[in-house]
Amino acid sequence: MKFFDNNATTPMLSESKTAWLQVQDGFWANLSAPYQQGVAVRRKLVAKREEFAKILKIDANRLVFTSGATESNNGIIRYFSTTGADVGKSKEMGYLSTDHSSVVNSTQALFGDRANVVVVNHDGVVQLDKLEKMLTKGVVSLFSMSLVNHETGTIQPWKAVLDMCHLNNVRLHCDITQCLGKFSLEGFSEIDFLSGSAHKFGGPKGVGFAVIPSDIDNICFQEGGGQEGGRRSGTEDVSSIYAMVTALDVSESVRKGHVEELEEGRSMFETCLKAKIKGIHIVSEGVDRIWNTSMLVMPKFENVIWMSQLEKKGFIVSFGSACGSLRSEGSSVLEAMGFSLDERTRSIRVSSSLYTSLSDWTLLAEAIVKTFCELEESELKSKSRLTQVIEI
C-alpha cells in the first residue's frame, strides 16, 4: 500500500523507534525523583532539549515540551485571552481564515467577539492589506497563522507578516507542524511563538512542543507539579521526546540530501494529471507551496468515491485535514478560499513523505488517470441503461 496522507500523520522512523525503546528500557525512572536514577533521566532530558533547540535554531530556555501542537496552540491562545495582553491594549486576537481547527476553534471559544479573522485570497495566501488594517487598530496582542497550510501546502509570507506584526507591537504565533522535516528552519527563531507535533515527521504521537519568547515567564499550559520550568506540569515523556528529536534530526538530514528529487516528484505528478484529465484544478498552483502537498479539485465524482477507488488500487489519499474529515460542508480551508460546496466535495489531498520515490508519484498519477477513465465509463454505462429503461 502506497501511503499519500503524510500531512495527517507519518509512520515512525526506525531510528525514532530505536531511540524510544532505548530510553524506555534504560531510563524509565521519574526524572523529578531525587535519587540517582531520576537525576540520570533528568540529565538526558536536558541534553535532548539542547539538541532539539539547536535543530530549531533557538535558545533552549524557550522550549516547552507538550503533547503536541493542539495543546501548544490552545495554551498560547489561552494565555493571551487572560494575562498575556500588553498593557494599554484590549485583549483581542487575530487568526487566519484557513488555520487549523485547534487555532480557529480555541480562538473563537476564548475570545468570542474579540476574535479577528484575516481572510486569504483564492490561492490561500494571507491578504497583507487586510492584515495591516487589523494590526493598526492597536487593540490586537497576538496574530496566529499556520506557516504552511495542512491541506493545500501553501507557504505564507511569514517574514512579511512578522515584520508587520512587530511594527505594530503585536506578537506572532506560527504553527510549524507542516514545515518540520520538509522546509528550512532558518529564521524561525525570530517568530515569537512556535508549535509543532512529532507524528508529522516520523516521531511518535502524543508529543510535541511550544516555543515561547524569552521575556515571557508567566505562561502556564497546565497546573500541577511545576515541570518544564513551571510552564507545563506533568511528568515529561522522555522516551517520546528522545524519539521526536531523533526523528527531526534524521528528517532534516534526509531532506537536505534530496531537495531536487523531492521537488521533482510532485511537479511530475501534477504535470501528468493536467495533461491527461481535462478540467482538473491544482489548488494554489501559482504560489509557493511545500513540495509534498497537492490539493486537487477533480472535474467529476465525489472525493469519497476517489478515495475508495484509489485505496482498492493500493493508494491511500485523503480529502483534507483528518481533524475535519467528518464535516458535511467539506474542507473548511477550501471554503475560506472561496471554493463552492460542489468543488469541495470533489477535492482530494495528496501528501508524500521524504521517502516517497519518483516511481511512487508516477504510479499514483497513473492510478488516478485509470480511475477517472473507469468512473467515466461506469457513468456512461449507467446513463445508457437509464435511457434504455426510459425508452421501454
Give me a quick take on this structure.
The protein is of the alpha/beta class. It has helices at residues 14-26, 36-56, 69-82, 101-111, 128-135, 158-167, 238-257, 259-276, 303-312, 332-336, 341-344, 358-391; strands spanning 2-3, 63-66, 92-96, 115-118, 140-146, 171-175, 193-197, 208-211, 281-282, 293-297, 315-316, 347-351.
Q: Can you walk through the features of this model?
A:
The chain has 392 residues and is α/β, with parallel strands linked by helices. The protein is 43% helix and 13% strand. A seven-stranded mixed sheet has the order 2-8-7-6-5-3-4, sandwiched between helices. A three-stranded antiparallel sheet has the order 9-10-12. Strands 1-11 form a two-stranded parallel sheet. The chain is globular, with a radius of gyration of 23 Å.
Straight-line distance between termini: 45 Å
SSE run: EHHEHEHEHEHEEEHHEEHEHHEH
Q: What share of the residues lie within helices?
A: 40-55%
| Percent range for β-strand residues | 5-15%
Mean pLDDT: 93
Number of helices: 12
Poorly predicted parts: none
Radius of gyration over all CA atoms, rounded: 23 Å
Structural class: alpha/beta
The spatial strand order of the largest sheet comes to 2-8-7-6-5-3-4
Shape: globular
Task: Describe the main β-sheet briefly.
Answer: 7 strands, mixed
| SS elements, strand count | 12
